[in-house]
Amino acid sequence: MSRAEFEVLVAEALDEVPPELAALIDNVAIFVEDDAPASDPELLGIYEGIPLTERGHYYGGVLPDRITIYRNPTLAICETMEDVVDEVNITVVHEIAHHFGIDDARLHELGYG
């Protein structure tokens, strides 16, 4: 799957976020990269920033939080196009959840691990 096709899947996954939640996503930029960091080559996505639950009155004038979805590791674990769509959706929700302060343990309980 090409980078452009994968980027479309990420955009479609973002479009599936309910509007009431999408309106609360504040100061976040979404990126697609081909490869995960060498230190964690199987990583499917990452949230880097300050979750909403940790932002205080001091929060301001900061660069946007960053969500990155990694194409090649995702494609490596998927056998079909349907698998890729499902995994992208799960990964996007997983990383957005971190923005809302939900940790990995709770995401695993919810089926987004």
From TrEMBL:
InterPro entries: Zincin_1, Zincin_1_sf
Keywords for the protein's UniProt record, in alphabetical order: Hydrolase, Protease
Biological-process GO terms, alphabetical: proteolysis
Coiled-coil zones: none
MF terms (GO), sorted A to Z: peptidase activity
Classification via CDD domains: MMP_ACEL2062
SUPFAM superfamilies: Metalloproteases ('zincins'), catalytic domain
The protein's name in its UniProt record: Putative Zn-dependent protease with MMP-like domain
Origin organism lineage: Bacteria, Bacillati, Actinomycetota, Actinomycetes, Propionibacteriales
